[in-house]
Design brief:
Blueprint (H helix, E strand, L loop, with lengths): L1 H26 L6 H9 L32 H11 L5 H13 L13 H36 L4 H15 L2 H12 L23 H39 L2 H8 L4 H13 L1 H5 L1 H19 L5 H11 L2 H29 L5 H5 L1
């Protein structure tokens, strides 16, 4: 198993390199770089895109060394900005410098916030982890019992109407469901039961311990429900199908023939084998909810997490934050893939990835 993990860890390096090369290359063709952002603010335009007349990257043609929209600004000012942001160097050199810094775990500093990228990520990470962890836990708590019940009642009216509800829930986009929750329960048009934004109320520090916990769950309720909906549907059907596959196997018929009760057959024999793929997939489900729902859900509910940070960095063309978070997210995703394999071995020691590869 050690050799398998080592191979997987070594595979992380070329994968991350490919991700960074592709995204760095794409950024070069996106109009409205950080310097144009500053120029737009200096000229009072408010938005860099108002000063863009056509596509292109941060630089205009070789014959004109000024930036789009920089007319009227001193050339020295533009050159000073280029030097400060490192745009006085060719793209290849900038990319190699960035990789060298990342190898030393130096992710740079935000162009506009004057704070290190690592500090920014650490500041926003708890919000996104909270949202992803609660969503995943609730999805498992609801999906596993419901999936088992659907497998036992396969083909009955209960199975039919719950499948219909699950399909409808899966078909609703997370952002649309979030807006629906706001309209219904956050003072949009009907009831104002839950707060509209944030994770805590004003004066939260002065609350008692019980008051802090209650206030936190009061704020997190709608975002968690909105981000759970798709994972809940997938896990329920996965659990049901896993149980159905195991129930039809020979060892289940043998256990029943020995006179074991249906409950003992189901939870004493079938459960472990059927739950292998569901439980082992926990890290992957968490990372899917973490990445998939954080951007839209955090923006809609004004949660100050990594998703919202990435969105704001993309709009502002804050390249150190964009590439730093992309690099960290890439490592997290690849490591979670390895953890998922380890979970399979933990749940069922009979699995041997090294022998399968051989």
């Amino acid at each position: 198993m050690g050799a398998y993990i080592l191979r997987r860890l070594l595979f992380v390096i070329p994968t991350l390199l490919g991700i960074m090369i592709i995204n760095f290359a794409l950024i070069q063709f996106v109009p409205g770089g950080p310097i144009e952002q500053i120029i737009a603010q200096v000229q009072g335009e408010g938005d860099v895109f108002e000063g863009i007349s056509g596509g292109g990257s941060d630089f205009v043609s070789e014959g004109d060394d000024s930036y789009i929209g920089s007319r009227g600004l001193p050339k020295e000012f533009i050159e000073e900005l280029e030097k400060e942001f490192g745009f006085d160097k060719p793209p290849v050199e900038r990319f190699l410098n960035m990789l060298w810094n990342y190898m030393r775990l130096d992710f740079g500093e935000s162009y506009f916030r004057k704070i290190g990228v690592v500090d920014l990520v650490l500041e926003k990470l708890p919000v996104s982890i909270t949202l992803g962890l609660w969503s995943t836990l609730i999805a498992y708590i609801v999906s596993i019992p419901l999936g088992i019940r659907k497998a036992v009642k396969d083909g009955t009216a209960f199975d039919t109407w719950t499948s219909g509800a699950i399909i409808v829930a899966y078909a609703i986009p997370g952002f649309l469901f979030a807006i629906l929750l706001i309209v219904l329960f956050a003072g949009g048009s009907y009831w104002k039961i839950f707060p509209l934004r944030g994770l805590t109320s004003d004066g939260w520090e002065d609350f008692t311990l019980i008051g802090k916990v209650a206030d936190y769950f009061w704020h997190i309720a709608l975002p968690v429900i909105a981000s759970t909906i798709s994972a809940f549907a997938t896990l329920t059907l996965l659990t049901k199908n896993s149980f159905l596959d195991e129930i039809k196997k020979q060892y289940v018929m043998t256990a029943r023939a020995k006179g074991l009760t249906e409950r003992k057959v189901l939870y004493g024999h079938v459960f472990r084998n059927a739950m292998l793929i569901v439980i082992a997939g926990f890290p992957a489900v968490f990372i899917g909810v973490f990445f998939g729902g954080s951007l839209i859900i955090e923006t809609i509910f004004s949660l100050d997490g990594l998703g919202r940070l990435g969105f704001e960095a993309a709009v502002a063309r804050d390249y150190p934050v964009i590439f730093g978070t992309l690099f960290i997210f890439g490592i997290m995703g690849l490591v979670v893939g390895i953890l998922s394999d380890l979970m399979y071995v933990f749940v069922d020691p009979r699995i041997d990835f090294e022998r399968r590869e051989g």
